[in-house]
């Protein structure tokens, strides 16, 4: 074993975020090492989505610092665009471009943002579609695919930018139950391949099996930060016990 001296992949230091008077992220401090899979749990309104959006700088923060792979996120400009490309994000709503084919959807950002050539972008897109199990649908349009398939395309599209980190914000919440597992399987594959992941989900089976770590948020704070085993069998806070009592 060689000594690892790399910076954490995600480092949030004393991050505060307000929406008006509402204090949505309270002194969030968090380090996610390279390759770790963190599942973020918590009741609705606890700040999970805002945390994801802050890490991706879709949402400006009021104080504190967020760094990705050792580089503090700048507020704007070219440096921001480059850093944002390092962070892939998958949302509940997949938002594929309806008038572009599946493979074109995956090629788009690398061509536009990374200035990758068409042929190379297509080759990479096909490899990624292979990886998420839908290469045979490449020339169809999003509406011709099921929700689960579309979400897998959305994952391939995020991966096409070669992100260092993947953020998932309730990626299976909008799916019919029978399509949830195929998306979770793709995510589990990514985790096994060593991707650093922050996953907001209500899929407790995924949290138990795939997570290295569980973060439980309530009212904008990290209330528990522990292993899945600990969290599910011996939650410490009343908030977590209450939460688990409602969902399990
Ligand atoms: P979660 O994802 O855990 O459900 P969110 O991060 O979406 O929580 O929201 C945290 C809190 O911030 C909630 O009270 C929500 O209503 C509020 N909020 C989220 N986005 C906005 C916004 N753009 N403007 C005002 N309030 C917001
Ligand atoms: Mg949310």
TrEMBL record:
Pfam families linked: ABC_tran
Gene3D superfamilies: P-loop containing nucleotide triphosphate hydrolases
Domain of life: Bacteria
Domain ABC transporter: start-end pairs: 10-244
Broad class of the protein's primary localization: membrane
Keywords tagged on the record: Amino-acid transport, ATP-binding, Cell membrane, Membrane, Nucleotide-binding, Transport
Topology within the bilayer: Peripheral membrane protein
Record has Membrane as a keyword: yes
GO cellular component terms, semicolon-separated: plasma membrane
Residues in the signal sequence: none
Annotated localization: Cell membrane
SUPFAM superfamilies: P-loop containing nucleoside triphosphate hydrolases (SSF52540)
Assigned EC number: 7.4.2.1
Catalytic activity of the protein: a polar amino acid(out) + ATP + H2O = a polar amino acid(in) + ADP + phosphate + H(+)
GO terms of molecular function: ATP binding; ATP hydrolysis activity; ATPase-coupled polar amino acid-transporter activity
Enzyme class (EC, first level): translocase
Family: Belongs to the ABC transporter superfamily.
Identification of the protein by name: ABC-type polar-amino-acid transporter
Species in which this protein is naturally found: Amycolatopsis rifamycinica
């Amino acid at each position: 074993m060689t000594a690892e001296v790399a910076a954490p992949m995600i480092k949030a230091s004393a991050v505060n975020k307000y929406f008006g008077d509402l204090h949505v992220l309270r002194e969030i401090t968090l380090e996610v090492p390279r390759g770790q899979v963190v599942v973020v749990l918590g009741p609705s309104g606890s700040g999970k989505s805002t945390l994801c959006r802050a890490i991706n700088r879709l949402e400006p923060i009021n104080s504190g610092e967020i760094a990705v792979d050792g580089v503090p996120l700048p507020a704007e400009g070219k440096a921001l665009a480059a850093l944002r490309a390092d962070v892939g994000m998958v949302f509940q709503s997949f938002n594929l471009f309806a008038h572009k084919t599946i493979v074109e959807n995956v090629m788009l950002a690398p061509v536009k943002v990374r200035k990758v050539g068409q042929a190379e972008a297509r080759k990479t897109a096909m490899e990624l579609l292979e990886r998420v199990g839908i290469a045979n649908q490449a020339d169809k349009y999003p509406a011709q695919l099921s929700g689960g398939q579309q979400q897998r395309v959305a994952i391939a599209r995020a991966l096409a930018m070669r992100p260092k980190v993947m953020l998932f914000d309730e990626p299976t919440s909008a799916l019919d139950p029978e399509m949830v597992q195929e998306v979770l399987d793709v995510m589990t594959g990514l985790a096994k391949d060593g991707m650093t992941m922050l996953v907001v989900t209500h899929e407790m089976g995924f949290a138990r099996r795939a997570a290295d770590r569980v973060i439980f948020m309530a009212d904008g704070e990290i209330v528990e930060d522990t292993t899945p085993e600990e969290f599910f069998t011996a939650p410490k806070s009343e908030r977590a016990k209450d939460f688990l009592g409602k969902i399990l």
